[in-house]
């Protein structure tokens, strides 16, 4: 049973769990993910990216933001607790080779899945230009680790509280305009960011890989809930992806599909997140 | 439509039994016994929850139904059974009140009688051949072999008589069984009985395969599947959930590094087929796999407690005519849909679903649109489903499947309004195992190629059976293939030099 070995809060609503999972740690490669279920009887199954792994220790690292019921349940667990079900590693690993110069763009929680890809690109001998983006300084994660791997690191925040003020697409455009231009781009983050990155690199005709995080039930090709349109064809993110050619992905359809359960999710978020917070505030104000 | 109450059916059967006592029955007497109706919950009541619809025969009804059997010497019913259960023998035992003996007869050939008694398509197997049905010129009046099988199995379960089969001394040999559905359960039990160590690998968090994620509680209570799993555990089978062979560990590593002497692939047909029509990726279009997995395995029917959401829909369209389509349509009603429409290209006569499922769906208010082919899914500006455009069809010449092909009638298109569309037109084997196992051969539709008598694949020490070989088929065929493969695996392991446990 996967036991929690370490728990840390990385930012507001962002947590890191290092979990005992020797088989997954041994087999996983950059780009792969796991399905996690926090309650065996009534819990849902959600995909989480593997941010790191230590095969010698037999552990994997999960980084997640508390957005739904499962992530809130996970955030409530502590060292020594058990996560009832972790299945993986799932999805096709990232295609890694010595491309030359690679640009890696990570936005928000997307920096977590980008981390093992950057590790693998570095190990394969690529020159690495890394752009990290977050809404604000306190939400920026893994900056130190990325700084240690990157040949150049550019940080952007929407509010300018750290690094450049603005979106990741601005430095991305500048890097694409360099001569010689980068050989490949990896962009992982919110769908709207990945779409913008793909549009930024399209005029430069630089191959752009995005990693999609869609609604899934099983994560093994059975439900088709994760299907996206790529180059006019229906593909399953769980088994055909999660990485696809960003210039071919129909992001608009994907974003609509991500909102399928929006009402229920908002209700859950309120219940799991706002209610306890309100209760805390009430306790504070009464004491 | 309303049903006689279970009590009324029981009383009526008891009276008839008394009247029949004391004199030997002629075949004419037996044919005169009315076919016993299955006691069922009232449609209006049952669509408010997911509890089992068919309640099972009372002992009186079971005796009376068993007396309808003519005990034919040539037993055509046995020929119709994929696993060749000695049907006349078990029915005779039931007629004479020897329930335990009936079960012993069934268990000689079948591992999952409580399951098969509920989900087998008896009307195209044993009951299709039944002499009684032929004499009465209606397959629906054949002896209800499936219901009797279910009665025997339920009686045994309720009595607590069942003991796990004995296991021979450990041989030190190890077998990996991939997939814990009907085929895998069968192989695990049959191989373990010979004293070989068995690990049953399941990708989901709960074992049972299609019996738990696919078939709803109202047709197959999960307690029955759980009991089968407990039996395997009691026999010493190791069950590893959350383990996807091909990703968590490759098949070749299990065989070459992890010490498994043989493997059986019973991974099923889990990859849903879609219609490949315009609008299929709109929000509100689901595979039946997704819809049923959410509802069954993830318990979304229990709205108060389950985390897994179900898409809110007032009007639901299900496309397809098989058991899965009926399951999805009936589940949609239970999940609160006000209207459920079923769209099928051919007529009811060609539907692959069991007759009982079609009848139950109609009783519950599912509206059938036969001779209708879906053309495109229509959505609104928010990308959500608002309807399905269909075209009317007529039946043409038989196609490759042997059934009359639906021929579209030009100009007959029209739109059925809906908030959700569920696609239930079949599944194919999941490609993962073959993609991650070099040398494992499959046909063009992704079905693994096996030796028809042993179930051996193109690889040594690797066997396969069930839907991963057959495409979407039935529980009983999966069990039959599992038995064959288990026998071949046992023979193969017996041919190896002895090893100490």
Question: Helices, strands, pairings?
Answer:
The complex is a heterodimer of chains A (287) and B (501).
Chain A: E1 4-11, E2 14-20, H1 22-27, E3 33-37, E4 46-54, E5 59-65, H2 69-75, E6 85-90, E7 101-107, H3 111-123, E8 127-134, H4 143-149, E9 152-157, E10 164-165, H5 169-176, E11 184-188, H6 191-201, E12 208-211, E13 227-230, E14 233-236, H7 237-240, E15 243-245, H8 251-258, H9 262-286
Parallel strand pairs in A: 7-8, 7-11, 8-9, 9-10, 11-12
Antiparallel strand pairs in A: 1-2, 2-5, 3-4, 3-6, 4-5, 12-15, 13-14
Chain B: H1 6-20, H2 27-32, H3 43-46, H4 59-67, H5 76-80, H6 87-95, H7 99-109, H8 113-119, H9 126-129, H10 131-135, H11 145-159, E1 174-178, H12 182-193, E2 197-201, H13 210-213, H14 222-234, E3 238-240, H15 251-256, E4 262-265, E5 271-272, E6 285-287, H16 288-295, E7 315-319, H17 323-334, E8 339-343, H18 355-363, E9 367-369, E10 372-379, E11 385-398, E12 404-408, E13 414-417, E14 420-423, E15 427-428, H19 432-436, E16 462-464, H20 467-470, H21 475-495
Parallel strand pairs in B: 1-2, 1-4, 2-3, 4-16, 6-14, 7-8, 7-14, 8-9
Antiparallel strand pairs in B: 5-15, 10-11, 11-12, 11-13
Helix pairs in contact in B: 1-4, 4-6, 4-11, 6-7, 6-11, 7-11, 8-11, 12-21, 16-17, 17-18
* Beta-strand content of chain B: 5-15%
With strands numbered from the N-terminus, the spatial order across the biggest sheet of chain A is: 10-9-8-7-11-12-15
Instruction: Write down the domain tally of chain B.
Output: 3
State the CATH architecture of the largest domain in chain B.
Answer: 3-Layer(bba) Sandwich
Q: Which parts of chain B are unreliable, with pLDDT below 50 for 5 consecutive residues or more?
A: none
| Helix-residue proportion of chain B | 25-40%
CATH class of the largest domain in chain B: Alpha Beta
Intertermini distance of chain B: 61 Å
- Compute the CA-based radius of gyration of chain B: 24 Å
Instruction: Please give the number of β-strands of chain B.
Output: 16
Bin the strand percentage of chain A: 25-35%
Oligomeric form:
heterodimer
Q: Overall 3D geometry of chain B?
A: globular
Give the helix tally of chain B. 21
* Secondary structure: helix percent of chain A: 25-40%
Distance between the termini of chain A: 41 Å
Averaged pLDDT of chain B, please? Answer: 94
CATH topology of the largest domain in chain B, which one? FAD/NAD(P)-binding domain
Structural class of chain A: alpha/beta
